[in-house]
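In the design runs reported in the main text, the only information available to the sequence generator was the tokenized backbone. The following block is the verbatim input for one such run; it is reproduced so that readers can re-run the procedure and compare outputs position by position.
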């Protein structure tokens, strides 16, 4: 299945990756153990799944412009989450229903086939606000049997099929199979600016019926992006990335937030949503998606933040953003704990002294009060239950983030070349952030903690250019 536009886009992406790839790859801020775009822009992880021996990670990819541009689905796959193949994009904006962007979505795996549900973005020209008019958000399905090429792509739902009280913003389908049926959640913005989730049901993966709407009693933001709904160890969780939630003390410090509600009852009928918990309190974490990997539930997020007041100097080298490391979710009552998947431990090399640490994995047992200063740029300080992260030089606009837990007892810090992921108390709270210390600097100063530090190796990424 291809058309002239797709054939041209395939060639253009290949050419821009060949021409601009070496400059991005030579950037001293290029990460070692995080997935990044080969060139240009990356945002949300999409279509995360395991299909046979392969893990697939698709992502919002804008190869022509490191500050955004038209989105397609970039593609990596791996057998072990450590060795990755960079494949050509899976989907290009080449259909009438996705001509201005193949937006976010998810994968359903059945009999070795990938069913990729996504939002096709269309922007009409004219004098529109692009919220209540002028935009098409279409739900579409692309099917791939070989996991590398799309053999059919069809439009399933358009704006006129959604409930009438909604704006044009209805997107990011997450689909799964349950009880002999298929379910889909879509994030939505109502005409009176409330965020909510539409629940759809289908018998055949193609015809969908709206069966319920999930929202809070009191308005919580104006749009819920990138929804996910899953059951972990007997408890349902509704995860989403709400826009428009105002800061409350140390909560919701970023322009957009991201977290989950525990859901009791039945998402298809009577339900209640519990207290919203943030999934991350750092500067750069948004639009995460989870997938079932056997008994495990794995989460990958985008280590970025849309419309943030801070930037990334990598734009000058023609690329921007990365994904988080894959994390394992565990349930603790009505809360989620998030820690790196154990596969990441295989990247640990020799143990190093704090003064030699640069790209590392660190485990700390903390005293009541303490401080870590990483590469002269990031300061992590805690006292009892309050932890503060200050980016003090090299923050590209990032300043301070605080998080509260009952008591800081342990920390695990994954420090890549230009990012930090800080896991408190086995994943009770996490802070993910990009930072830009002077290239090649090293050294961690430690007060109030017993630490073990391992130097970290790199993901192995090979390029499979000529599949299409
Ligand atoms: C979240 C998001 C999604 C949308 C995608 C477009 O970051 O705005 O809602 O599908 O990015 O790239």
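Verbatim output:
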């Amino acid at each position: 299945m291809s058309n002239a536009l797709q054939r041209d886009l395939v060639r253009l992406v290949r050419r821009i990756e060949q021409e601009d790839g070496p400059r991005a790859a030579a950037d001293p801020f290029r990460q070692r153990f995080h997935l990044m775009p080969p060139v240009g822009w990356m945002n949300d992880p999409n279509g995360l799944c395991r299909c046979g021996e392969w893990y697939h990670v698709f992502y919002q990819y804008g190869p022509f412009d490191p500050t955004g541009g038209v989105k397609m689905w970039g593609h990596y796959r791996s057998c072990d989450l450590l060795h990755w193949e960079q494949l050509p994009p899976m989907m290009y904006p080449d259909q009438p229903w996705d001509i201005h962007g193949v937006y976010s979505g998810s994968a359903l795996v059945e009999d070795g086939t990938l069913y990729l549900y996504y939002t096709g973005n269309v922007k009409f020209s004219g004098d529109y606000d692009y919220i209540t008019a002028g935009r098409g958000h279409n739900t579409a399905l692309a099917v791939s049997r070989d996991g590398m090429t799309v053999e059919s792509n069809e439009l399933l739902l358009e704006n006129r099929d959604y409930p009438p009280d909604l704006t044009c913003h209805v997107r990011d389908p997450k689909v799964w199979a349950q009880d002999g049926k298929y379910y889909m959640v879509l994030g939505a913005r109502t005409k009176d600016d409330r965020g909510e989730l539409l629940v759809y049901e289908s018998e055949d993966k193609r015809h969908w019926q709206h069966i319920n709407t999930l929202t809070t009693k009191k308005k919580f933001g104006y749009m819920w992006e990138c929804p996910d709904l899953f059951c972990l160890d007997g408890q349902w969780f509704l995860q989403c990335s709400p826009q428009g939630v105002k800061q409350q003390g140390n909560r919701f410090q970023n322009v957009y937030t991201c977290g989950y509600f525990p859901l009791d009852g039945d998402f298809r009928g009577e339900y209640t949503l519990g207290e919203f918990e943030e999934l991350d309190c750092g500067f750069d974490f948004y639009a995460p998606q989870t997938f079932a990997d056997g008994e495990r539930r794995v989460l990958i997020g985008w280590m970025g933040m849309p419309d943030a007041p801070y930037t990334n100097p990598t734009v000058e080298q023609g690329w921007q953003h990365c994904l988080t490391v894959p994390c394992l979710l565990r349930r603790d009552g009505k809360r989620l704990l998030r820690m790196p998947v154990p596969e990441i431990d295989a990247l640990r090399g020799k143990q190093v002294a704090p003064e030699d640490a640069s790209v590392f994995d660190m485990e700390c047992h903390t005293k009541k009060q303490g401080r870590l200063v990483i590469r002269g740029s990031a300061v992590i300080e805690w006292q009892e239950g309050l932890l503060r992260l200050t980016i003090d030089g090299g923050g590209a606009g990032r300043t301070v983030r605080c998080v509260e837990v009952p008591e800081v007892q342990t920390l695990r810090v994954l420090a890549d070349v230009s990012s930090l992921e800080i896991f408190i108390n086995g994943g009770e709270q996490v802070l993910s952030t990009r930072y830009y210390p002077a290239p090649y600097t090293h050294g961690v100063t430690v007060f109030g903690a017993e630490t073990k530090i391992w130097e970290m190796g790199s993901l192995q990424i090979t390029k499979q250019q000529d599949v299409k």
